[in-house]
Specification:
It contains 8 helices and 31 strands. The strands form 7 sheets. Strands 5-4-1-6-11-8-12 form a 7-stranded mixed β-sheet, sandwiched between helices. A 7-stranded parallel β-sheet has the order 14-17-20-23-26-29-31, with no helix packed on it. It has 2 domains: 2-236, Spore Coat Polysaccharide Biosynthesis Protein SpsA, Chain A (Alpha-Beta Complex); 241-357, Hexapeptide repeat proteins (UDP N-Acetylglucosamine Acyltransferase, domain 1, 3 Solenoid). It is α/β, with parallel strands linked by helices. It is elongated and about 65 Å long.
Amino acid sequence: MKALIAAGGRGTRLRPITYSMNKHLIPVANIPLIVWAIQKVVEAGITDIAININEGDTELPKAIGDGSTWNVKITYIEQVGGALGVAHVIKNAKNWLGKDSFVFYLGDNIVLGSINPFVAAFQEQHANAFLALTVVPDPERFGVPQINSAGEIERVIEKPSNPPSQFAVTGIYCFDQTVHDAIDTLHASNRGELEISDTITAVIAQGGKVKYQIVEGWWKDTGKPYDLLEGNRLLLESMSDDRAQAKMIEDGVDIQGKVQLGNGAQLLGKTIIRGPVSIGKNAIIADSYIGPYTSIGHGTEIDGGEIENSIIMDDTDIQCSTRIVDSIIGHNVTIQNAHMTKPSGHKLMIGENSSIEL
């Protein structure tokens, strides 16, 4: 099998962060979203991977490389004409895919655990299309399957105002070559896109075998800031405790729970770290409180800060006693104390190269 990872689009719901960086390079638990996707397909034994990118995008190929890091081959395919729908990603990669079956993975989705059983079920059931479904509280945000009394999918409806079920089609699929014929029958939706939901319906209409697996607790779409923080929380909960690479942990430091410390990290003074927390390479934390579900980027320095349930990216400098919660802070940001700040517990979403006072 091959794998096709979708990493195009503009991430408009995550602005201003995505004004200055590709959404798929946003770090979650200190690993870029796209890398989590790559790791999952590599673990499934797939060595031939294509990543769909925006026209003219050089940032993502530069950051990820040719795949040698994972002993695989990565090909980059520009989505000619722009973001014209999820199904258009497959259409655009048709020549590369050829007659091979493939895993189709939306690169901004977080999957906990292995996808190996999912891929194996697709192969064992000889399906033309295989979907992962999960129960969500807001199915109107997703593609929703209509399932009959025999447990068969009759069609999939994209973002329905009256969802026929509580299931959402998650961002991971398996297809064989028949999907290309189905896509060739599609017309653009009212949104001007080739919809993946219409693709599944077209496979069924052509007599294809569409199967599914219901999964629980291992999928997260990261389309909005809250979703990123939730994904960060899920991944931090699943990580192991690892402090061996730290450069220095002073005697006064109090570490509670699972904490990962990157190579060269320093914890100084009367710092309290309450896990799960991930602290990146060469980060310096002094006289600060870092609370649960926080990831601190590489090279970041925090002095006298209080941070909880947040994503702090690389090379940021925080010297601020005001409590920061539920926040996403970009690269190279400077946050300093001001004389008076109310209320405490600010919520921040700050793009790269910013400088603010609190």
